[in-house]
Structure formats: structure tokens, C-alpha cells
Write a structure and sequence with these properties.
With 659 residues, this protein is an alpha/beta fold. It is 29% helix and 18% strand. It contains 21 helices and 28 strands. The strands form 7 sheets. The chain has a 6-stranded mixed β-sheet. It has a 5-stranded mixed β-sheet with strand order 6-14-15-19-18.
């Protein structure tokens, strides 16, 4: 039978003709109402992600868990009652909910009210007028007054059909009075209009900085609009930021960014102490319907666990209780999943750490450039060892092969062995060498690959690394051959939350210019799907409850409009989510709510406060400058000086928390 999308989504009346037929045939044999299922799915492909029952006919859910998987006739007879919600998939595909293996969830509430000015396929932008139009739509939708801030994110001038960067004049024509900023896709810069430049006193008289760029108009010192690195950081520090009450309200649309893509477990992959406090407050107020796995940054561990620290009668620091007991279990949908360490920076930003020089020089054209570690081994190794000793899972950011060597050496020094089942994760593991996979297998290290990089920056990696090295980025096929378990991630906001795009990049490995980068490392479809379901569940030690459709597991499920195992490869990235369930409850789409009244004309950011000039900044670098960002990703996660990072890690290594 054919069903409409409304019938599939609607719930109680989803069954229509097919549901009535199920009830009629089950009427004489169904169990009592209190033992019947809450939901039964049938009528389409069911991809369980298991080898034992790869393609059953039906699934039954009760009390948020899967209670039956198998033949439609059996489930109809045993689990369908008068109150059972029967969902006829109508040929659509049921899968386990997707699991975010690495990303930065706390960024989502910050951007939900901004305009997405990204190039296709992340956004809809092809040319500068598209950006202007999206910013105008955002101003109208958010009811932003003429003197308020209009902000977009994802700007990338390198791919515009105009073949030039956007300037302040492009923005001025549409926004003569608003303050406007289009934040660069790297989060290292942005284009400002004249009003915004004047607001921050950036003029022709402003000196050229040593730590970044103020682009100038031709044959003039007048600023053109684009700021990069240092000047942008100084500007962003002074931008209005949401207070806690506002961010809590923004959590609902922020979570919809994930749920609308079928994600039921998110990661906050480099959590600061205040961000963890925010997540816990959100959980206590029942504002989270996604599970969130938090990985506190090592530098913030003393602040997060200060309640466990005391001093003895000689004034010596001592630990009261067991901090490791805080890890590995959910409380109000928030779980501490381990501790985050950062070994290097980003490959496209040339701040990763390699053993061989880049072919294109360093960020400022330095010859023989191999990057550098974020932190010396002598400082980070004792932290790795201390966390391992305390049985705390270590999540290490490492992109370049020299940084990966550092992780391997740290694991060796900590006595890590595959048989110990530590499940230490190496996030990104991008620019690997083949011999390093042997070390991963020996130590039991599990990579979380980043195949979306192949699409978004594969052409850059080809130029920087050459064909041989670039072709081994995120080597899924080679890892599979060595029985290494690996996940795949989007690293939101570096790339968008989009598991189907991730699966496509793993299977196709196609760059923006259409180059198949590393054809021998293309994964098969099932492997690519496991990398966003059952394997990240395993990395989180949640494989008993998530990641596949099996009896006893949580009913975290997603309905897709097409089957990723059957559509043409190029269509995988275009598969849409129809409905998402968390523990049997629909979390996407949510029922419509009454529109809320916007604030007054002069209150552009209701509940927002100005950022302290000393606050942590939006920056990611190689650690050699005045600030070290989350060299991990979008860089919005730290703003400590390099000296402060080294001091914090040194103190942590000798702290009673680890010793």
C-alpha cells in the first residue's frame, strides 16, 4: 500500500488501511493491553546493523525499548493490541538512531538564530547576492531592529561564482544601519559591513596587525570588510553572547538540528567547566531530549572536579572520594564519557603535526613546514598515563602522523594493551601512515575518522600533501582489514550535522573538484553505516543499549525516505530523515508551537550580555601564538595562553586527581 508522509508521521492514525488490517487479524490473538507493544513498525526495509537479523519484517517497541524483532506475523500475533500505534513504513527505511562520534554540541544553541550563508551543499549560497538575501531573511525572521546585529555563519569567498571576496559595500547596500557580520567557515574570520567596522573602530588609520589580516580596498587603506585571525578574534570577543536563560531556551531548536538528521546521541567534544555546568542545568530542568556525551578538556579537569579536592593537616592536596565514578553513566541525559587531550591542530589550517614537510609551505609560507605539537610530549604523556591509571577513557585529538606517533608513544608509555579493552579513541586520525594502524591494533586504539574532510578539503590536502599521503586520509578500508573498530564524525560546526553526508563521503571519497581521493580506502555501505551507529556506541561503551535494532536496546530509531544500502552511491547524501524517535518518543518532527513574541525594537539579543574582554575566544591555532584554541576543530572552546595550558597540564599530571 502507499502511504503519505503525513500518515507515517502522524502517529495514532498512521495505520490507516494497513493498520486496521493488522488490528483485525490480531484481534483474537493479541495479548492483554498491558503487555502489548506501544509501537510496531512494518512495511519497509529494516536495517538492524546486526549480522544475526539483518533484515527483519517488523519491530515492536514498549516502554522505550525494543521488545521484538522478526517476522511480521509473529509480532502481529504477540505484540499488537488495541492501543498499539502501528506505523506502516510505506517502503521507507527504519534504522537505529545515528550516534554523533565527535562534535561540539554546545555550539548549536549559539548559531540557531543566525543565518546559514554556507556554500552548497551545506547551504544554498552560490553568489554574493544569495548571502545578502539570506541575511535579509534572517533579519525579518528574527525581527531584528535596524540598529541590531545581523549575523551569518559559514561564509566562504573561495567558492563564490563572483570570483571575489564579499566586501563591506556589498553589505552596506542592504544594511546601511545594522551591524552585520558573516563569519568565515573556518571560524577564523568574518566580513563586516561599514557600521560594524566603525563600531569596532577599524578604520584606515588602524595599523596592520602582526597576528592576522585587515583586508584593504584597492589603492587605499580603507578596510574592505574581511578580517582574519587576530583582528577577528578581537572583534568576536566583544560580540553579544547569550546568557544562560537564553541558551536554555535555544536548546530545543539546537537539538532539532541533530534530531532532524536522525541523531539521537550527541557529543560535546571539548567541554569547559562552565559548559558542563550549563549542560547539567539543562538536564536538571528536563530540557534535553537527546543524550549528550561530554568530554571535558584536560585543562578544565581541576575546575570540574574541585569538589573532590581538599588538603590534609599539612596543607597537602588530597582527593576525597573517587572522581572516576563520575564517568560512564547518564544523569538527566548528560554523561561524562572521558577526557579530551589535544596533540596538534588542523591539516587544512596547516597547524597539524607531520613527520614530512608540506609541499606548499607553512601558514605564512615557511619552508620545510611540518607543523608542531600543541603540547610537548613530556607534559602530555603523564596526563595520558594518569587518566589510564584511573581507568578514565582518553579521547586524543591528532591529525598529523607525527601527532599520531605522539599518541601511540603516550599509550605505550601508559602500558595500554588491546587486551585491556581501554577503548581509548584517537579523534580524526587523518594523516596516518600504514604502519600506525598496526600500532592501533596492538594497543587497542580506536580511531574516529573524518571522511567529510575528503569532500570539503580533499583538494587542499592534495596540494599540501601530494597524492600518496592525501590518499591515506581516514583509511577506513585498511583499518577494516586489520579488524580495527572505527567511527566516523562530522565535527560540528566544522562540517554540518549530517550522517548521510558522512556515509556518502566514506563510500565515495570524492572531493569538491570531483577527484576520487584514495579509491582503495573507500568503505562499503554497511561499514560506513556502522561507523555512525554501532561503532560509536561501542566507543561510548553503550553497545548493549544503542547502535542497532535488537531486543532489549533503547528504541532510538530513525525513518529514512530511502534505503542507503540500495540507492545509487551519489544519492546517499540526499537521503532525508522522515521521523526520529528517542526511546520510542518522536523527537523529530516536533509538533508546532505557538510563535513567541519578539522582544522590543532596541533589544536585538534578548537576554544577551556583552562578552568579557578576557573571555575565551573563537580561535584555533598551532599553540605558538598568544592563545591556544581547541586546535581541534572550530576553535570556539578555549582561550588560554600557551603558558597557561602547559601550567594547567603539568599541575594536573601531578595532581592527586590522577596520582
Amino acid at each position: 500500500m502507499t502511504v503519505s508522509r503525513r500518515m507515517v508521521v502522524a502517529g495514532g492514525s498512521v495505520a490507516a488501511i494497513g493498520g486496521m488490517a493488522w488490528r483485525a487479524s490480531a484481534a483474537d490473538t493479541s495479548t492483554a493491553a498491558d503487555t502489548s507493544a506501544d509501537i510496531v513498525f512494518y512495511g519497509g526495509p529494516i536495517v538492524t546493523m546486526t549480522d544475526a537479523q539483518p533484515t527483519p519484517e517488523a519491530v515492536a517497541v514498549k516502554n522505550g525499548k525494543i521488545v521484538a524483532v522478526g517476522a511480521a506475523s509473529d509480532i502481529r500475533a504477540k505484540w499488537v493490541g488495541s492501543r498499539t500505534r502501528i506505523i506502516d513504513l510505506g517502503g521507507k527505511t527504519l534504522m537505529p538512531g545515528f550516534i554523533d562520534a565527535h562534535g561540539h554540541f554546545v555550539n548549536a544553541p549559539r548559531i540557531v538564530n543566525w543565518a546559514n550563508v554556507s556554500l552548497r551543499p551545506v547551504g544554498t549560497v552560490e553568489k554574493i547576492p544569495d548571502i545578502i538575501g539570506l541575511l535579509q531573511e534572517n533579519k525579518a525572521a528574527q525581527n531584528i531592529p535596524d540598529d541590531g546585529w545581523v549575523i551569518g555563519y559559514g561564509y566562504d569567498g573561495s567558492g563564490l561564482s563572483d570570483k571575489r571576496e564579499m566586501t563591506r559595500h556589498d553589505l552596506d547596500a542592504a544594511f546601511p544601519n545594522n551591524l552585520v557580520m558573516a563569519i568565515h567557515v573556518s571560524n577564523h574570520g568574518g566580513v563586516l559591513n561599514t557600521a560594524a567596522l566603525r563600531h569596532f573602530k577599524i578604520t584606515a588609520e588602524t595599523p596592520d596587525p602582526d597576528n592576522g589580516v585587515i583586508t584593504r580596498e584597492p589603492n587605499s587603506r580603507e578596510p574592505a570588510g574581511l578580517l582574519m585571525e587576530g583582528p577577528f578574534i578581537a572583534v568576536f570577543e566583544q560580540m553579544p553572547q547569550p546568557d544562560e536563560a537564553t541558551k536554555l531556551e535555544l536548546l530545543k531548536p539546537a537539538q532539532q538540528m541533530y534530531a532532524s538528521k536522525g541523531v539521537t546521541t550527541a557529543q560535546e567534544g571539548a567541554t569547559l567547566a562552565d559548559e558542563l555546568a550549563f549542560l547539567r542545568t539543562a538536564g536538571e530542568q528536563s530540557r534535553l531530549y537527546l543524550d549528550v556525551v561530554s568530554l571535558p578538556l584536560a585543562t578544565d579537569v581541576p575546575a570540574i572536579f574541585k569538589s573532590y579536592l581538599d588538603t590534609d593537616y599539612n596543607g597537602k592536596p588530597v582527593v576525597i572520594g573517587d572522581p572516576s565514578s563520575e564517568f560512564g553513566h547518564y544523569k538527566n541525559r548528560v554523561k561524562l564519557g572521558g577526557i579530551k587531550l589535544i596533540f596538534d591542530g588542523s591539516p587544512q589550517g596547516k597547524t597539524a603535526y607531520w613527520t614530512k614537510p608540506l609541499l606548499t609551505g607553512g601558514p605564512s609560507n615557511e619552508p620545510e613546514w611540518v607543523g608542531m605539537p600543541a603540547v610537548p610530549a613530556a607534559i602530555i604523556d603523564p596526563v595520558y598515563a594518569g587518566l589510564t591509571k584511573q581507568k578514565i577513557q582518553v579521547w586524543s585529538h591528532a591529525n598529523g602522523d607525527a601527532a599520531i606517533d605522539m599518541v601511540i608513544a603516550a599509550a605505550d608509555g601508559a602500558g595500554v594493551k588491546a587486551a585491556d579493552d581501554r577503548r581509548h579513541v584517537v579523534i580524526h586520525s587523518q594523516c596516518m601512515r600504514p604502519d600506525q594502524l598496526d600500532s592501533y591494533a596492538r594497543l587497542g586504539l580506536s580511531p574516529s575518522f573524518f571522511t567529510a574532510h575528503v569532500f570539503f578539503w580533499g583538494d587542499v590536502h592534495l596540494a599540501n600533501l601530494g597524492l600518496e599521503r592525501a590518499s591515506f586520509i581516514s583509511p577506513m578500508n585498511s583499518a577494516s582489514a586489520k579488524d580495527i573498530r572505527f567511527s566516523n564524525h562530522n565535527d560540528f560546526m566544522v562540517t554540518p550535522v549530517d550522517p548521510m553526508l558522512m556515509v556518502w563521503t566514506a563510500v565515495a571519497r570524492q572531493t569538491k573538484d570531483g577527484v576520487v581521493l584514495g579509491p582503495d580506502e573507500r568503505a562499503d555501505r554497511m561499514t560506513a553505516l556502522k561507523a555512525v551507529t554501532i561503532v560509536p556506541a561501542w566507543q561510548y561503551r553503550e553497545e548493549a543499549t544503542k547502535g542497532s535494532i535488537e531486543v532489549g536496546k533503547l528504541a532510538d530509531l530513525v525513518i529514512l525516505d530511502r534505503n542507503p544500502l540500495e540507492v545509487p552511491v551519489d544519492d546517499i547524501r540526499h537521503i532525508k530523515v522522515v521521523q526520529t524517535f528517542k526511546e520510542g518518543s518522536t523527537i523529530y518532527p516536533l509538533p508546532p508551537t505557538a510563535p513567541q513574541k519578539k522582544s522590543g525594537a532596541n533589544d536585538t539579543f534578548p537576554g544577551f550580555r556583552r562578552r568579557d574582554a578576557q573571555a575565551r575566544t573563537l580561535f584555533a591555532d598551532d599553540g605558538s601564538g598568544s592563545v591556544i584554541g581547541c586546535a581541534c576543530c572550530d576553535g570556539s572552546l578555549t582561550g588560554l595562553t600557551q603558558a597557561a595550558v602547559l601550567k594547567a597540564l603539568t599541575e594536573l599530571a601531578s595532581s592527586p586527581l590522577l596520582s
